[in-house]
Amino acid sequence: MTTMSVQEFKSVLKTEAASVEEYLSTCLHNRNIPQRLLDSMEYSLLAGGKRLRPVLCLAVAAMFGVKKEQVMPFASAIECIHSYSLIHDDLPAMDDDDLRRGKPSNHKAFDEATAILAGDGLLTEAFVLMTETAENLPADSVLTALNTMASAAGSGGMVGGQQLDMDFTGRNDVSLEELQTMHAMKTGALIRCSCECGAILGGAGTEDQERIRTYGANIGAAFQIVDDILDEIGTEEELGKPVGSDLEQGKNTYPSMLGIEKSRELAQGLVNSAVKQLAVFDGSDALFLRTLAQYIVDRVS
Ligand code: GRG
């Protein structure tokens, strides 16, 4: 089989996301977390995201022959980090968003202090989960993956990208290169690293790790461009974000710099390059990853 229909792809994605969901629903239990904090953490963690990052990590590891169950704690840790970033991103001091995925954002459903702690709690629990992966896989690969993940999520990656985003807001002379650097850190690093950690935990050799790293960086960049396009054309409306709200807040976006058509072309070019990196791999997981790359451009929400 060399192609996968959108229907088949969506069905595999749903099954994979459901297995992540199941693991996430119990992973914070028996941790002695005070009830209100646990409720706040689970409110966001179990609020129905696409689970894109953990699914990428699982599929890449499986492509190198490692069972998904073995990587599940690590993959779930990535979702915890993603969930923390969304909680903190919504806070009044950051994007000040009242809604996330169509529901009150964490600080609206609870309170600001609890939301800050819920984010801190999810970030820290992620490290517990990542180290727990060493029960299933060689400790040296887990350590390498953990180091890679911490670098991608931290101040030289996602957190630093958030700082650049704030620095750029309201500036009208931001270059395309600056915008790309900011997004490679803010959104791209975690997506790229989800793939990269799947390869490391899967025991991939250096060349294959590099291929997967490039695949991840390219789909991460494409994901952000499409996110900007969706915001511009309005499909985020149902998620509770007013259409074009980023522009109103003085944010720099791909459509505002390049227009919709050129932005789409840029995203498609990145996806084509990502797919090329997978040419040396075969099997159902490689096919799933190729289809996922194209889905990033084709998605409507
Ligand atoms: C506050 C430390 C800190 C970091 C925030 C990633 C990030 C940095 C903020 C997220 C803001 C945002 C909406 C960025 C656009 C791209 C993006 C990451 C969208 C959300 O990811 P999805 O679509 O979310 O995978 P779901 O809801 O499916 O989990």
Describe it.
- The chain starts with 5 loop residues before the first helix and ends with a helix.
- Helix 7 packs antiparallel against helix 9 (176-201).
- Helix content is 71%, strand content 1%.
- With 301 residues, the chain is mainly α.
- Strands 1-2 form a two-stranded antiparallel sheet.
- It has a single domain, classed as Farnesyl Diphosphate Synthase.
- It has 14 helices and 2 strands.
- 45% of the residues are buried.
- Bound molecules: geranylgeranyl diphosphate.
- Geranylgeranyl diphosphate binds next to helix 4, helix 8, helix 9 and helix 10.
- Geranylgeranyl diphosphate (GRG) binds at residues 49-50, 52, 85-86, 88-89, 94, 101, 158-159, 162, 186-187, 224, 227.
- It is an enzyme of class 2 (transferase).
- Pfam families: polyprenyl_synt.
- Keywords: Isoprene biosynthesis, Magnesium, Metal-binding, Transferase.
Describe, in short, the structure shown.
This protein has 14 helices and 2 strands; from the N terminus they run H-H-H-H-E-E-H-H-H-H-H-H-H-H-H-H. It is globular.
Q: Order of strands in the sheet with the most strands?
A: 1-2
Shape: globular
Number of helices: 14
Query: How many β-strand runs?
Result: 2
Give the bound compounds.
Answer: geranylgeranyl diphosphate
Helix/strand class = mainly alpha
Gyration radius from CA atoms, angstroms: 18 Å
- The average pLDDT value, as a whole number, equals 93
